[in-house]
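Hi all, posting the design record for the shared folder.

TITLE: backbone redesign
STEP: 1 of 1
STRUCTURE INPUT:
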């Protein structure tokens, strides 16, 4: 890297003052400063991109190692499950003459599992869970009113008063 000390900077400034002139020197200095700032930002962006790509490569390697470990675990679980099924079928093969658990369930029938019954939900609880503003907007009644009161409320009013 270039070593710029105070004496070298003073020499460069004096030569620039003589060559460029005192009138144009501030504008040139601003332009040079702006260009140096852009160059520094570009270099920092390139460094950040290189470090990101290195981190991405490391993450890809880590992902591959985790995936391979997961595949190993999955294969070991599958072999263990297969061994368990084999030993289970061998152990239950001679019990009570039943070939398997499924056959035993088939012979028992529907006594073990009753027919499906839909759970009856309490509609009052569901009504109370609805917000008051929604009820008012959609026209859901919130107060109970007798039939006679409802008829009286919605009865058309006559234009003439009784005498």
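Okay, here is what came back for every position:
SEQUENCE:
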């Amino acid at each position: 890297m270039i070593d710029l000390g105070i004496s070298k900077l003073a020499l460069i400034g004096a030569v620039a003052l003589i060559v460029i002139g005192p009138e144009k020197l501030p504008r040139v200095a601003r332009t040079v400063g702006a260009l140096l700032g852009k160059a520094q930002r570009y270099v920092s962006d390139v460094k950040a991109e290189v470090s990101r790509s290195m981190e991405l490569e490391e993450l890809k390697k880590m992902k591959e190692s985790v995936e391979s470990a997961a595949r190993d675990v999955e294969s070991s679980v599958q072999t263990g499950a297969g061994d368990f099924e084999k030993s289970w079928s061998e152990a239950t093969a001679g019990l009570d003459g039943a070939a398997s658990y499924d056959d035993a369930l088939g012979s028992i029938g529907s006594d073990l599992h009753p027919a499906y019954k839909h759970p009856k939900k309490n509609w009052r609880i569901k009504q109370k869970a609805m917000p008051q503003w929604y009820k008012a907007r959609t026209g859901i009644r919130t107060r109970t009113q007798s039939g006679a009161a409802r008829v009286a409320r919605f009865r058309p009013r006559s234009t003439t008063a009784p005498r």
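COMMENT: The two ends are 113 Å apart (CA to CA).
Let me know if anyone wants the other runs.
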